[in-house]
Amino acid sequence: MTSYPPGSPPGAGPLSGKARVAGVVGWPVAHSRSPRLHGYWLAEHGIDGAYVPLPVAPENLEAAVRGLAAAGFAGVNVTIPHKETILALCDHVDDTARRIGAANLLVFKEGGIEGRNTDAFGFMANLEESAPGWNAAAPVLLLGAGGAARAVAVGLLDTGVTELRVCNRNRARAETLAAEIAGPITVLDWEDRAAALDGAGLLVNSTSLGMTGQPPLELPLDALANDSVVAELVYSPLETALLAAARAKGCAGVDGLGMLLHQGRPSFAAWFGVDPQVSEGLRRFVLGDG
Q: What is the mean pLDDT of the chain?
């Protein structure tokens, strides 16, 4: 059972008959840190509510989601492998989710199921918090072209980035990203990733390379300016080899945990009516086993 921070109000329980309930739908879902994240905020704000993990196999997705809505859930987060297929079940989809091609937040209303995507918000909020004053006028190099990369691309383009360079091991997938999202996107071959750092003010690694249990990311940073920013989307390990190399060079480093924490804020606000804050205590709690 999850234990909550000492001194926090007992907002996660006991629950009343008026409690608002939300959760996270995925397959599997045991690895998700979202219950710790939202549980912390429920306790911190003394809210009569709960947030639970909901393992749902792909073949049961529609029945489960409609059942949760009928049962009075406020909504759910959606994680792998359902973030793209869930769009077909939504009665309304916001513009960000439509452009990214995935939803990670469902809000259940009388008018039906509303699908949203908060990943772009989470990435940008983490970037602004961790590297305030980053140079949005300089080119950005984005490694990867999966769902997370699409969210990053949308967030950066909406912020006004004028040149987004995308390198992916599968170039065709990067071409698809560029075509579907549109904007000032240049697709480059994976072999050209090191050279693509020239003039870049921000490097974002959205691939799994460098993650615990995955192959390392081989990328010399020689062409990257010392005042650039390097951001990771993974948080296991929290300090990747890429971040360590960037910091040694003098660059600002942005770890991936903040994106996870900030992307949860709009979900919590939609279900429980409070815009929570990301604190150092929250970071420690979500990373820990307490």
A: 94
Q: Amino acid identity of 245? A: A
Same domain, 155 and 222: yes
- pLDDT grade, residue 216 (50/70/90)? very high
- Tell me the C-alpha distance between 72 and 78, whole Å: 17
Task: Give domain status of residue 14, yes or no.
Answer: no
Q: Is residue 10 a part of any domain in this protein?
A: no
Alpha-carbon distance of 104 to 83, in angstroms, equals 6
Domain extent for 69: 20-117+261-287
pLDDT at 13: 54
Other Cβ atoms less than 10 A from the Cβ of 17: the count is: 5
Q: Verify that 151 and 138 share a domain, yes or no.
A: yes
Query: Among candidates 28, 115, 17, 33, which has minimal Cα distance to 72?
Result: 17
Q: How many residues does the chain have?
A: 290
Q: Which residues are catalytic?
A: 83
Q: How confident is the model at residue 217 (pLDDT cuts 50, 70, 90)?
A: very high
Which sign, positive or negative, has the C-alpha torsion 203, 261, 274, 96? Answer: positive
Strands (E) in the chain, as ranges, are 20-26, 49-55, 75-78, 92-93, 105-109, 112-116, 140-143, 164-167, 185-188, 202-205, 229-232, 252-254
**Residues near 1 by beta carbon (within 8 Å), at least 6 away in sequence:** none
Largest CA distance in the chain: 60
Q: Which pair of structure tokens corresponds to residue 212?
A: 């615990």
Give the separation between CA 139 and CA 141, rounded to whole angstroms: 7
Please give the pLDDT value at position 15.
Answer: 86
- Amino acid of residue 223: A
